[in-house]
Automatic annotation (TrEMBL):
Belongs to the glutamate:Na(+) symporter (ESS) (TC 2.A.27) family. GO terms for molecular function: glutamate:sodium symporter activity. This is Sodium/glutamate symporter. GO terms for cellular component: plasma membrane. GO terms for biological process: L-glutamate transmembrane transport. It comes from Acinetobacter chinensis.
Length: 404
């Protein structure tokens, strides 16, 4: 029996899931100590409950994909609208260095996947599927490349395998970041005084996107209306560009167009027309869409897809998890300076190295909520994880497929 849940029902359930996650994180010391994001906790509880209902009673629910897509586009648009060239310049050499760490990991991830696939007697392209196609790319990339691999390279079941692998990655990406950061902070004695979760003083104007998510943002109705107008413009243009670019060499996912349009709109208004951009309103809408989108994404997970992963593929995915933890702990952390900011960046790298950009930001929010702010992480992670990583990943995938 399958139930259809409309947009409003999906929104209500997502809010409940978020409150459940918040309640459990505040009450269970283990979750709090290991910095597991609230949307991940609540979403996993809901996904497990959905699995049990499907397994024992044959009951499943299909949630509104439209509202989830809108929230995803709002989240990526908020990153674009927050990407002032001034802030991009502030990221400086650290952004470039972190980008090199990301490139290195994408190559390592694919090397592990392809090598283990060969050792286990599988097609090397299957190793690529359980490599950066799904683990760095997420569900969207899994679906797009799964179709290509099925139709053009004869990899039967590539889409199902990709979705199952991406589901595994999204869960691990959200769970691994906090413990990795805790390990690094404790081992190298980087711990600061814990933040007060009830501190509701206003955030300062120079804070980066998604930073200080629990702080009060002082906005007015006029600010909210003009900001919503910018969001709507960016998403409208993104939808039009998605249709226009279909089948063209410059075809890109809608969320990339939304992010890119946000960058252009922000900087044209700010630097050409000298319009005062209200970052506080962008922050509020961005954080709201992030939390709700992540809750919905986990709520919609069909955990029974993981049953489609055969033994050899589980071996590859477990190995990828170990490689992710080692790489972020001993490469990303060391290269980025071996300090507190580097530990937070390592947690973020776990998020999109084996999950998605929303998971990465949720990871660093969970860590900084407990251990203190990291302005550098909130500058670098959104820019690198949402934009550069997709371009890098697409180039690496296309190059590797040519060899196999």
């Amino acid at each position: 029996m399958n139930f259809q849940v409309d947009a409003f029902g999906t929104l209500v359930i997502a809010v409940i899931v978020l409150f459940i996650g918040r309640f459990l994180v505040h009450r269970i010391k283990f979750l709090r100590n290991y910095n597991i994001p609230e949307p991940v906790v609540g979403g996993l509880i809901a996904a497990i409950l959905a699995f049990l209902l499907f397994k024992f009673f044959g009951i499943s629910a299909k949630f509104s994909s439209e509202i989830q897509t809108i929230l995803m586009l709002m989240f990526f648009t908020s990153i674009g609208l927050s990407a002032s060239f001034v802030k991009l310049k502030e990221g400086g050499s650290a952004l470039f260095i972190f980008l090199l760490c990301v490139i290195g990991f994408v190559l390592v991830q694919n090397a592990v996947g392809i090598s283990l696939a060969k050792m286990l007697g599988l097609d090397p392209l299957i190793g690529l599927i359980v490599g950066s196609i799904t683990l760095t790319g997420g569900h969207g990339t899994a679906g797009a490349w799964g179709t290509v691999l099925e139709q053009e390279h004869g990899i039967h079941g590539a889409i199902v395998l990709g979705m199952a692998s991406a589901t595994f990655g999204l869960i691990i990406g959200g769970v691994a970041g906090g413990p990795v950061a805790k390990f690094l902070i404790k081992r190298y004695k980087l711990e600061t005084v814990d933040n007060d979760p009830n501190d509701d003083t206003p955030a300062h104007d120079n804070s980066a996107a998604f930073e200080y998510r629990r702080k009060t943002r002082l906005i007015t109705a006029d600010n909210a209306i003009s900001t919503l107008g910018m969001f709507a413009l960016c998403i409208f243009v993104a939808n039009q560009m998605t249709e226009f670019s279909k089948g063209q060499w410059f075809e890109l996912p809608t969320f990339v167009w939304a992010l890119g349009t946000g960058v252009i709109v922000r900087n044209v208004l700010e630097h050409v027309f000298k319009v005062n951009i209200f970052d506080r309103a962008i922050d509020v809408f961005g954080n709201t869409s992030l939390s709700l989108y992540l809750a919905m994404a986990l709520l919609s997970l069909q955990l029974w897809l993981l049953a489609d992963l055969a033994g050899p593929l589980v071996i590859i995915l477990v190995a990828q998890t170990a490689v992710l933890a080692l790489y972020t702990s001993f490469v990303t952390f060391k290269v980025m300076g071996g300090n507190y900011d580097a530990a937070v960046l390592a947690a973020g790298h776990c998020g999109f190295g084996m999950g998605a950009t929303p998971t990465a930001i949720a990871n660093i929010q969970a860590v900084t909520d407990r251990y203190g702010p990291s302005h550098k992480a909130f500058l670098i992670i959104p820019l690198c994880g949402a934009f550069f990583i997709d371009i890098i990943n697409a180039f690496v995938i296309q190059t590797l497929i040519k060899f196999f």
